[in-house]
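Note on ligand handling. Small-molecule inputs were canonicalized before submission; formal charges were left as drawn, and no protonation-state enumeration was performed. Where a ligand contained multiple stereocentres, the stereochemistry in the source SMILES was retained. For flavin-adenine dinucleotide, this procedure yielded the string shown in the input block below.
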Amino acid sequence: MRHDWKGFDDQGALRFETEAHTTELVKADAVLLALGGASWPKLGATGLWQSALRDKAIAITPLTASNVGVKVAWSEYFTSRFAGHPLKRLIVSCGVQRAVGEAIVTQQGIEGGAIYALGPALRESITRSGHAMLSLDLRRDVSETDLISRLTKPRGKKSLSTFLASAAGLDPVSIALLRETFFLRNEKLPEDPQALARIIKACEIKVHGMSGLDRAISTAGGIQRDEFDSHLMIKKMPGVFVAGEMIDWDAPTGGYLMQACFSTSVAAAQGIVEFVEKSRG
Ligand SMILES: Cc1cc2nc3c(=O)[nH]c(=O)nc-3n(C[C@H](O)[C@H](O)[C@H](O)COP(=O)(O)OP(=O)(O)OC[C@H]3O[C@@H](n4cnc5c(N)ncnc54)[C@H](O)[C@@H]3O)c2cc1C
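Structure output:
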């Protein structure tokens, strides 16, 4: 524990830096490298292993952020009150891509399962035109026609926010989000039932970037598949196996990432047992 792996020495021993900044060499019968990707680096996975493997001519696809939130230029008023608030039971779209789920307002923008699922479509649009449009259906279980009839009821002395809460069943963060999207366009929130119903079913948010690796749930890219055999042993380095996010694969969040890490670990462990048994004769 608390040893940083720095690479291999000329004889293939593992080179570690200790907490006291001394170097320790370890010769092993077999090695499993499971050093993660480079997302949320403050948790430990920094991706610094790449240079040690590139030195051994191992091909690595560049590490990029996956399952990551997007950046929105919210007003200070909105983030000071609503950063950290969840938006539940959404349908989120970007172009023709749709995802069902939840999202959370953040200081920098918006993140969560439904946003991660649209990652490729968002990234493609941002790369092509410098921004992407996210459309949020804030009442996915109520039709637009039903919303219009609910919002056509007399408002009485209720403020628009109170009316939206009682007639359309919107929570405070959803109402604030509607107001915010209009505020950001220097426009006033409409008050007629048809327009309100339309924007509740398609609240448009302008996204101007993807968040970086420091806030990403996972990492795409890594050691390329041609570099290891079916037991996940690096072909150019007999006895060195890899598992987990170091490998070049990508998956949605929701257990799939961890499952891929467990599965590759089991495959590599079986490979290690075979390799060690064979080398001991
Ligand atoms: C906030 C967050 C939420 C997530 N939620 C989910 C989820 O809901 N479902 C899901 O499936 N997945 C989720 N994931 C992803 C999942 O946690 C990862 O895919 C998985 O942990 C990767 O496992 P790994 O063993 O490859 O790497 P890691 O778990 O990152 O472990 C790598 C380890 O190697 C150590 N290390 C790195 N470099 C060195 C070095 N040079 N020397 C010594 N040690 C080193 C690190 O300190 C770390 O302990 C989440 C990730 C994050 C960050």
